[in-house]
Design a protein that fits this description.
two-stranded antiparallel ribbon, 10 helices, TIM Barrel, binds (6S)-5,6,7,8-tetrahydrofolate, alpha/beta
């Protein structure tokens, strides 16, 4: 199954059978003081730099999140979407909990963007899906609902099914819903990663849709997070993840190595080109 995203001129296909699509996570002020300060000051030069650096490192799509306490997302999200879209030509992933901010951001996004995100909560289904439908966008559906994040794969699968049904009922095609199986830290629960891996396999087998993961939560609170993130990414691709929200500067090489190992990079062309480009730079 293919989920097609577009910028002004570039088309990106998230494909259950294809190489992994990387969504760059760095334009997100959560835990990122320098970016939070830049957004407050209206210093968008730093945002342009983060955008260019991630695309240079191999990001296919850029996540744009402007959630800074005290800032008005409804005006800031569209402003930042314009800044990023004027500077780089890759599809955008608009990351907000605020439906009004998402609608305003979608209105100024070129091409076909991705909305991050809806989940199984009744209020979210009702507020987010119509906005996605109106704009002809794609959407990430998180496998959580009014009861939180379930700690078993079967319940996460049933939430994924519910999101797909509700999307279909208002005319959003199945291929435009990417399911995010969510992962919590193994620092707090030794089964956290295993539940996510089982959910990925189940959703892939039962629903056949594309699967996204924001993998770095898995290592929260543990030393040497990078090693755990790399190992978890590899396991998740083996299980069927086709799209990740991650830091491409740190993890693009891991992603490309996994594509090669899983037979999704004929002759190692992408891996070799990427390595050559980085050695030159
Ligand atoms: N699924 C979906 N969307 C998501 C997530 C997900 N969006 C948010 C998050 N999870 C993914 N994005 C980030 C962004 C930054 C970090 C982790 C995940 C991060 N930041 C560093 C920190 O907090 O320590 C700071 C980085 C810096 O200073 O540059 O780790 O799961 N759909």
């Amino acid at each position: 199954m293919q989920t097609i995203l577009k910028s002004k001129t570039v088309e990106v296909r998230i494909d259950t059978e294809g190489p992994v699509v990387m969504i760059g996570e760095r334009i997100n002020p959560t835990g990122h003081k320098k970016l939070a300060a830049a957004l407050k000051e209206g210093n968008f030069g730093y945002v342009r730099e983060l955008a260019a650096r991630q695309v240079e490192a191999g990001a296919h799509v850029l996540d744009v999140n402007v959630g800074v306490p005290g800032m008005d997302e409804v005006s800031l999200l569209p402003e930042l979407v314009k800044v990023v879209a004027d500077h780089i030509d890759v599809p955008l992933c608009l990351d907000s909990n605020n439906p009004e901010a998402l609608a305003a951001g979608l209105a100024v996004s070129p091409g076909k963007p991705l909305v991050n995100s809806v989940n199984g909560e009744e209020a979210r289904l009702q507020s987010i899906l119509p906005i996605v439908k109106d704009r002809g966008a794609a959407v990430i559906g998180l496998t959580m609902d009014d009861n939180g994040i379930p700690n078993d794969a079967e319940t996460r699968l049933s939430i994924a099914g519910k999101i797909l049904e509700r999307a279909a009922s208002i005319g959003i095609p199945q291929e435009d819903v990417v399911i995010d199986t969510l992962v919590l830290t193994v620092g707090a629960d030794q089964n956290a990663a295993l539940v996510t891996l089982k959910t990925i396999e189940l959703v892939r087998r039962e629903l056949g849709v594309n699967i996204n993961l924001g993998a770095s939560n898995v290592s929260f609170g543990l030393p040497d997070r990078h090693t755990i993130n790399q190992a978890f990414l590899a396991l998740s691709f083996g299980a069927g993840t086709s799209c990740v929200i991650t830091d491409p500067v740190k993890l693009a090489r891991t992603v490309l190595a996994c594509d090669l190992l899983l037979g999704r990079d004929p002759y190692g062309k992408q891996y070799i080109e990427h390595t050559r480009k980085q050695q030159k730079a």
